[in-house]
Write a structure and sequence with these properties.
- It is a single chain.
- The chain is an alpha+beta fold.
- The protein has one domain.
- The chain is built from seven helices and four strands.
- It has a four-stranded antiparallel beta sheet.
- The protein is globular.
Length: 194
């Protein structure tokens, strides 16, 4: 195995979560600078009223993955193309597993909806680029950052992980942060089985 994954979880009332971690104006500027802006349905500008969407929920349950890379993986990714390909491959694999797990958890928690880490990557090319509706609206989930949430602060405060960025080499670990929004507090038994 080229990596190992540590999963961490925490939860907070939606009101407090938004008060502490949401700054739409600041983080929408980052989104507008991203090459995926207005090209993927899970990312801004959103096709929904974000205020109405979030206000339906009382709890934000955060699920994070710290993806620890083996030293040889870091060392072997010695070009920009290898760094991008290896990093994307590993992160996508873990992200898809987390997305699937959270969609299954939604079925156990009536009225819940999950949020993904980063943009959707279910389709090879998002239909938004062609001006068409989402091909998989039942599976597509918005990203946490699409609502203006500070992912660095969330992962540090709630999960005890400091995000490392991929610069001229692969980082020691990648971090994914997903969420599941619920009307009622998630029973510990269900949350721990996630």
């Amino acid at each position: 195995m080229d990596y190992s994954v540590e999963f961490r979880k925490n939860k907070m009332s939606m009101g407090l979560f938004r008060q502490r971690y949401q700054d739409k104006e600041k983080y929408m500027e980052y989104c507008r600078a991203c090459p995926r802006y207005n090209t993927v349905w899970s990312c801004p500008p959103l096709d929904i009223d974000s205020e109405d969407y979030l206000s339906r929920f009382e709890w934000m349950n955060v699920a994070g993955a710290k993806i620890n890379l083996e030293r040889h993986v870091i060392e072997e990714a010695d070009t920009a193309d290898k760094i991008k390909a290896v990093g994307w491959g590993i992160v996508s694999e873990v992200k898809m597993r987390m997305d699937d797990k959270l969609r299954k958890l939604e079925k156990e928690l009536p009225g819940s909806i999950s949020l993904s880490s980063g943009g959707c990557n279910l389709c090879r090319e998002c239909s938004r680029k062609e001006g068409q509706t989402c091909r998989q609206p039942d599976k597509m989930r918005y990203s946490l950052d699409a609502f203006g949430f500070d992912l660095s602060a969330i992962t540090q405060d709630m999960l005890g992980i400091e995000i490392q960025w991929c610069r001229d080499r692969l980082p020691d670990y990648f971090t994914l942060v997903h969420g599941i929004m619920t009307v009622d507090e998630v029973p510990e038994k269900i949350w721990l089985s996630m």
